[in-house]
Amino acid sequence: MAIHQKQVMTLQQKLSPQQIQMIKLLELPTVQLEQRIKQEIEENIVLEEAEQQNEEEEPQQISVDEYLREDDTPAYKMRANNYSKDDKPRQIPLSGGRSLQEYLIEQLGYRNLSEEEMRLAVYLVGSIDEDGYLRRDLESVADDIAFTLGEEVSPERLEAILKVIHDLEPAGIGARNLRECLLLQLSQLPMTTRSRRLARKILTSYFDEFAKKHYEKLISRLQVTEDEFRDAIAEIRHLSPKPANGYSDGGSDAAPYVVPDFILDYHDGRFELSLNSYNVPDVRINRRYVEMMRDMVSSDGRVQEKNREAVQFVKNKIDSAKWFISAIKQRRDTLMRTMQEILDFQQEYFKTGDQSKLRPMILKDIADRTGLDVSTISRVVNSKYVQTQFGIILLKSLFSEAMQTASGGEVSSYEIKNILRSCIDDEDKRRPLTDETLMDILNDKGYCIARRTVAKYREMLGIPVARLRKQI
């Protein structure tokens, strides 16, 4: 085949390194932004933490000659009157609790186990997940032990050691499924009452029917009264489906907490919105490197050959630092601009916190008001929180689709969800409302909604189907 040359005109869209950096910073919540800034300070030698100043200077792109002529390096201050009135410096306590594995291994030390059995028991304990279950079959665990520890062990041997772990606290630890977990917890209780004995029989022989809530069938097969069956179910409900709760990651004291990205105060009919920059360091360019460049450049602006590489290195670092500082400023402006539009759109909600006053709002609504792209708004609201007088709110939860009413008006999907939750809370648990019945109730109230939409909202609320809500 002959080779031919031809000109082709194409249109391509590419992001500059500064745009990519801005996008990544925009997605970060406050806690991760603090870590990202400290990481950049460690990686870029010309960046340093700065003391807070009253005036804010905007960094600009300038040449090396301008670096050498300027009296001082401009710096961007991220914090400017954005502290809450009640904000006070505080130390964050760290939990010193033990992990679940440490707690179990400590208990194993009180058992009469040989050195080999202890090694195998510790390996099994390490295979238990955060919920307290051993979700791997013993054959696979035996293969891993042969590969990592170099010991041949049979699944029957591991089964015997696993029974030792089953006797440890918390009750039900090391179970391989929910049924075994509940039975292990029951086995550690004295079988002195009829309800506990009946509960054990249900879990042993009729677990599938119990999980599917076929209560009438169970009452008939067990030949018990409704009161006796209800007492047995109550005993089962007192058991924990996740025995490791309270032990993982050192206990509940180590539970993560939310740091709000915005602080919204409402006083005397006026809103005060600020960006929460608590513990976020201010950054600036270290003047020492500017002076270093002055020393390496002659009065006529020439750089000696031996200093050319060093000057270029420092110049690249300064450019990178100014890009980063500029991206931080643009992030702050974008966040405040977006949050201000959300506040203006949902003023009635932010006054009282009443979800029924939430207006239907989608990302495009805010994008049109700010002039930003929908993807930018999505990055702003993702994983961001605002602190209000009625609690800390996830920004993403403020967005909802509009639903048409019979009168032609629009309501937020939150209003539909609140009605669904209210109907389900007030239903007869012996005869729970089906999705079809809930659809009829909503249609009677003037909300035009289909059954599949009812099912979608019910699942979003974490509410099971009618059959699984049934109680005796």
TrEMBL record:
Pfam families: Sigma54_AID, Sigma54_CBD, Sigma54_DBD
GO cellular component terms attached to this protein's record: DNA-directed RNA polymerase complex
Domain (RNA polymerase sigma factor 54 core-binding) ranges: 97-289
Family designation: Belongs to the sigma-54 factor family.
Domain called RNA polymerase sigma factor 54 DNA-binding: residue spans: 312-471
NCBIfam families xrefs: rpoN_sigma
Single Gene Ontology BP annotation: DNA-templated transcription initiation
PROSITE patterns: SIGMA54_2, SIGMA54_3
Phylogenetic lineage: Bacteria, Pseudomonadati, Bacteroidota, Bacteroidia, Bacteroidales
GO terms for MF: DNA binding; DNA-binding transcription activator activity; nucleotidyltransferase activity; sigma factor activity
UniProt cross-references to InterPro entries, sorted A to Z: RNA_pol_sigma_54 (IPR000394), RNA_pol_sigma_54_core-bd (IPR007046), RNA_pol_sigma_54_DNA-bd (IPR007634), RpoN_core-bd_sf (IPR038709)
Organism: Alistipes communis
Keyword Cytoplasm on entry: no
UniProt keywords, alphabetically: Coiled coil, DNA-binding, DNA-directed RNA polymerase, Nucleotidyltransferase, Sigma factor, Transcription, Transcription regulation, Transferase
Segments forming a coiled coil: 30-58
Name of the protein in its database record: RNA polymerase sigma-54 factor
